[in-house]
Every structure is written in C-alpha cells, then in structure tokens.
Specification:
Strand content: 15-25%
Radius of gyration: 21 Å
Protein name: D-xylose 1-dehydrogenase (NADP(+), D-xylono-1,5-lactone-forming)
Number of strands: 14
Pfam families: GFO_IDH_MocA, GFO_IDH_MocA_C3
Distance between the termini: 51 Å
Structural class: alpha/beta
Largest sheet: 8 strands, mixed
GO molecular function: D-xylose 1-dehydrogenase (NADP+) activity; nucleotide binding
Order of helices and strands: EHEHEHEHEHEHEHEEEEEEEHHHH
Family: Belongs to the Gfo/Idh/MocA family.
Organism: Epichloe festucae (strain Fl1)
Shape: globular
Bound molecules: NADP nicotinamide-adenine-dinucleotide phosphate
Number of helices: 11
C-alpha cells in the first residue's frame, strides 16, 4: 500500500538571482494547491558566491525557513550533508563548473537551462552523474507542465495525424526607444555578454527548440539503430550578431529526414513573438500534422492554453485553458516551476537517476543542435566557459574569492 506521508526532498540553492527567487517561491507553495500530495519540498540551504549575508537576505526576502543554512561559497553548499539536491541557478556560462562541483560532491543536481555552453560539457556532466550514481536533470520547466504532457499525449495518440512540421518561436523585442539597433540591456548583462554565454539562442531559443524536440524527437519510437533509437536532426542555422558578438536574431531548421519532419526554431531579442507582449498575437508554436494542428500561444516557456484545429470539421477551434495553480496562503505564488521540482522529488523517491520526460540523451541532443547553430553563426565563447576540464577552484566556482 502506498504511503500517505509525502516524500520530502531537501533543496540546496546555488545562487541568489532572479530565477533562484522564482523557483524557491514555487518550492515554498503548498503542493496541495496544485493537487500534489505525494511529494513535498524543503529549502535547507542557500549559497551566494559573494557572501553569506547575501544568502541570508535572499532567504528573508522569500520568507523562507529561518533554519536555512546560508553560505558565502558554493563549495560550502555542496558539502552540506543536509542537502539532497542542489539547484544550480547561475548564468549558463557557469553551469558546467558549478554542476560538476555539486555532482563531484555526490549531490543530486537540477541545473538551469541552457544545461551548458558546449555539448562536450553536457556529456561530461552526465558521465559524472553516472560515476557518482546521482540524479541529474536540466531544468527545462516547460516540459513538466500538464499542458506539455497533454500536447505530447495528443501527438502520440494520433489526434492530429502524423506530425510533419513544428514551428516555434520565443522572441522578445528588447530594442531601445531610440530604435538605434541597441537593446536595453547593458553590454555587461548576461543576455548579451559573451563572458556569461550571452545571446538569444542559449537563453530564449532553447525554448523554441524544446517545442521542436518534444513534438518531433521525444515522441519518436525508440526502435532503431542510434543509442537512444531516436533520430537527431541535421541543423541549418542563420544568425545575426549583436555588437558584443552574441547572437541577436537566430533561426534554426532542424531536419528529421527519417521521420519526414522539419522543425523551425526561431529566437530574437530585436523583435517579439508578440509585438505587444500579450497572448493574443499569432500562435508562438504550430505543431502541424496530417489531420490537424495544435497551436500554443506566447510565451513558449510558460503557455497557459493550447488549441486544436482539425482538418475534418467545420473550422472550429478547440481552445483548452491550462491555468497555473497558485497558493492563496503564499500571496498567490505559483509560477509553474514546481512541476519540475515535483519530478525531481519523484525521481529521488523512486531511485531514478534521470527523468524520462527530459532524459540525458535529449538534453545532449539539444546542446548538439545549439552548438551546431552557434558554429554556423560564427559565435565563439571564451575558453574559460567552454572548457570541459573541471576545476573546483575555477573563478566560476569561487566567484574570484
Ligand atoms: N527557467 C526559467 O524560466 C529561467 C528564467 C530565467 C533564467 N533562467 C536561467 O537561470 C540562470 C540564471 O538566470 P537569472 O536570470 O537568475 O540570472 P541573474 O538574476 O543574473 O542571477 C544569476 C546569479 O548567479 C550568480 N552568479 C555567480 N557568478 C556570477 C557572475 N559572474 N555574473 C552574474 N551572476 C553570477 C549570482 O548569485 P550569487 O551572487 O548569489 O552567487 C547571481 O545572482 C541562467 O542560466 C538562465 O538561463 C531560467
């Protein structure tokens, strides 16, 4: 008989920036508010690379537990025996070194997207997770939305026939009011700073690719010759570069000849998927099959509805709303990141080292796709963030302290 006591996992949070705050607020919501009763979450430690005071200010800001340990270095966090799983919430430039620091210490790891800067780094992290026999997953939260699960089920059940094409875009118009070709971020910002693996693709384009992959790759039967049995795409990319050298406007064609499918993933920081930022613009994602189409509105990372349009019929559009539950006891927090956290908890509870919803080989295949696109676009990142040699004392781990 199943236990009625929820399985609890204890989180250690690495970094105190924007996404760490958003994720932690979701961890602090009551799982029952999203009708989850089998797992729950505790934040037991937070670390900042800069100071323990910053970590303490962070936990206060999110009204986290007073018992949370607060550290001024990532090394102390990964050494904390109370921590079951480390959430890596640093810029993607840092993910390889930071995730390796945690895996090497024997910790389970949930690492923000983009998983790494290169595919070789991703492969090395997976190898380390295997060596240490720990759980490891890329934090592509959208994959775990009930909406995404439903869309994948509709495709698998043949609801729109054979899917031959997916077009997906995630773009934001970040241009200045002067319309001078600049974006509003300073050149030092992680969105455009190559030292922090800046650029539209690794930050935003990965969500467009997520939709291409979860509709054209993830759903493929695993029955043929490659290690996963799935067909990775060949990649044709076009990129324009911002004056910092990071990509500002990127389009990728993913070609799956065996399944006769093509995915088109686009991303930009010069124009928006939605000119006015609202969900009423044209669909952000079109999943096109022989018997119909599924459309998903902007933003691709956090959609709250989808539509099904069938070939046979009177042209009716079936719109399905998928609101994200909030916790009234927590000031209506609820961003949608809790579902990926629940997945981590269930994997740990069940002794799984990877999630079937976002398996290691698929994260690597997406990194390979992005790497190919960056190569074709001529974007080169600095050696410090592309090396696949782990260094516990790298400034990316120590914050130059
Ligand atoms: N899943 C999502 O929806 C989502 C949304 C936004 C971002 N992200 C991902 O989350 C990661 C962090 O993004 P963010 O928006 O949270 O960034 P952010 O606000 O700039 O925070 C990044 C944090 O990383 C730490 N850090 C360590 N070295 C740093 C350095 N040299 N420069 C800047 N920060 C440094 C800092 O925390 P300490 O000083 O405490 O160490 C900083 O607060 C990125 O990989 C991004 O792609 C995901």
């Amino acid at each position: 008989m199943a236990s009625s006591t929820p399985y609890t996992i204890k989180w250690g949070i690495m970094a105190t920036g924007w996404i760490a705050e958003t994720f932690c607020k979701d961890l602090l919501t009551d799982p029952a508010a999203r009708d989850v009763h089998d797992v729950r979450h505790e934040i037991v430690a937070v670390s900042s690379s800069t100071s323990a005071d910053r970590a303490a200010a962070f936990i206060k800001k999110i009204d986290g537990p007073a018992s949370t340990s607060t550290y001024g270095s990532y090394a102390e966090l990964v050494a904390d025996p109370r921590v079951d799983v480390v959430y890596v919430a640093t810029p993607h430039s840092h993910h390889f070194q930071n995730a390796m620091l945690a895996l090497d210490a024997g910790k389970n790891v949930l690492c923000e997207k983009a998983l790494t800067v290169t595919a070789a780094q991703a492969r090395k992290l997976v190898a380390k997770a295997q060596e240490k026999k720990v759980f490891f997953m890329e934090a592509v939260w959208t994959r775990f939305f009930p909406l995404s699960i439903k869309v994948r089920e509709l495709i698998a059940s043949g609801e729109i026939g054979t899917v031959y094409r997916t077009m997906a875009d995630l773009s934001f118009n970040e241009t200045t009011d002067e319309d001078d070709g600049r974006v509003s971020f300073p050149d030092s910002h992680r969105m455009v700073n190559k030292d922090l693996a800046g650029g539209a693709l690794l930050d935003l384009g990965i969500y467009a690719l997520t939709w291409v992959f979860q509709t054209l790759y993830h759903v493929q039967p695993s029955s043929s010759s490659s290690s996963s049995g799935k067909e990775s795409p060949t990649v044709l990319a076009a990129m324009n570069k911002y004056h910092t050298g990071a990509d500002e406007n990127t389009s990728i064609i993913c070609h799956f000849p065996r399944s006769r499918a093509i995915g088109v993933a686009t991303t930009s920081i010069l124009v928006g998927t939605s000119p006015h930022g609202k969900t009423t613009a044209a669909p952000a994602i079109r999943i096109q099959g022989s018997r119909g189409e599924i459309q998903v509105p902007h933003p691709a990372f956090r959609p709250t509805s989808y539509s099904v349009i069938r070939r046979e019929g009177d042209g009716a559009v079936e719109v399905v709303e998928c609101p994200i539950p909030t916790d009234p006891k927590r000031d209506s927090w609820g961003h949608g990141m809790f579902w990926e956290a629940d997945e981590c908890a269930r994997c740990l509870r069940d002794g799984k080292k990877q999630s079937v919803t976002l398996p290691w080989e698929e994260s690597i295949a997406i990194m390979e796709t992005m790497e190919a696109a960056l190569r074709q676009g001529g974007v080169e990142y600095p050696e410090q963030i592309t090396t696949d040699v782990y260094d516990a004392k790298s400034p990316l781990n120590t914050g130059n302290q």
